[in-house]
Write a structure and sequence with these properties.
- The complex is a heterodimer of chains A (113) and B (110).
- By secondary structure, chain A is an all-beta fold.
- Chain A has strands spanning 4-6, 11-14, 19-25, 32-38, 45-50, 54-58, 61-66, 71-76, 85-92, 101-103, 107-112.
- Chain A has no helices and eleven strands.
- In chain A, strands 2, 4, 5, 9, 10 and 11 form a six-stranded mixed sheet that branches. Chain A has a five-stranded antiparallel sheet with strand order 1-3-8-7-6, with no helix packed on it.
- The radius of gyration of chain A is 13 Å and the shape is globular.
- Chain B is mainly beta and 110 residues long.
- Helix content of chain B is 0%, strand content 55%.
- The chains are: A mainly beta (113), B mainly beta (110).
- At the A-B interface, β5 of A face β4, β5 and β10 of B.
């Protein structure tokens, strides 16, 4: 069973701090990695994707991928209360079609003013 | 506006009464899929479609049917709903490997 694991949280950080969200995956052949944000009662919203080892930055968000360790993370700099949400890590496995995106169960982030 | 729409958004029904949840996208995406989301279980894929007339099972297909007769539409059919299908359902369409989700349908089966 190919799995994507996340700490369910809640992760609580003060406003202005860096929030670090982590994800591990079991399929060493996984190719594509995504981070979605989901506000309570709303649909998941894509915020970052990363395909290659290393860091990818987009505004306050940085995705980090380490394929050797099968580890992907999301850093949120200068966290704001509006960042409070559940963050879902998702992976496309090797040979998987575009339809076959495996999601973790999500980490709930709370940013305290 | 580029979007994925679902109807109905909320539905309460009874065991055994056939229902259809519609999904439509206006982005000309080839890939569409259905997920259910349950507390503690996360998002699980029910079915997906790589193009018109091409559908395949996801991780939890039992009790569901789909069809893809047109590129823009991908309805989810529950022929005989049961209480364990009470869930939050999301339709998604894909551009490349990135998925765009509809607003969700909260289904309760009594």
């Amino acid at each position: 069973q190919k799995e994507v694991e996340q700490n369910s949280g809640p992760l609580s950080v003060p406003e202005g701090a860096i929030a670090s969200l982590n994800c591990t995956y079991s399929d060493r052949g996984s190719q594509s990695f995504f981070w979605y944000r989901q506000y309570s009662g709303k649909s998941p919203e894509l915020i970052m994707f990363i395909y290659s080892n290393g860091d990818k930055e987009d505004g306050r968000f940085t995705a980090q991928l380490n394929k050797a360790s099968q580890y992907v993370s999301l850093l949120i700099r200068d966290s704001q209360p509006s960042d409070s949400a559940t963050y879902l890590c998702a992976v496309v496995n090797y040979g998987g079609s575009q339809g076959n995106l495996i999601f973790g169960k999500g980490t709930k982030l709370s940013v305290k003013p | 506006e580029a979007q994925v729409t679902q109807n109905p958004r909320y539905l309460i029904t009874v065991t055994g009464k056939k229902l259809t949840v519609t999904c439509s996208q206006n982005m000309n995406h080839e890939y569409m899929s259905w997920y259910r989301q349950d507390p503690g279980l996360g998002l699980r894929q029910i079915y997906y479609s790589m193009n018109v007339e091409v559908t395949d099972k996801g991780d939890v297909p039992e009790g569901y049917k789909v069809s893809r007769k047109e590129k823009r539409n991908f309805p989810l059919i529950l022929e005989s709903p049961s209480p364990n299908q009470t869930s939050l359902y999301f339709c998604a369409s894909s551009l490349g490997r990135a998925k765009f989700f509809g607003p969700g349908t909260r289904l309760t089966v009594l």
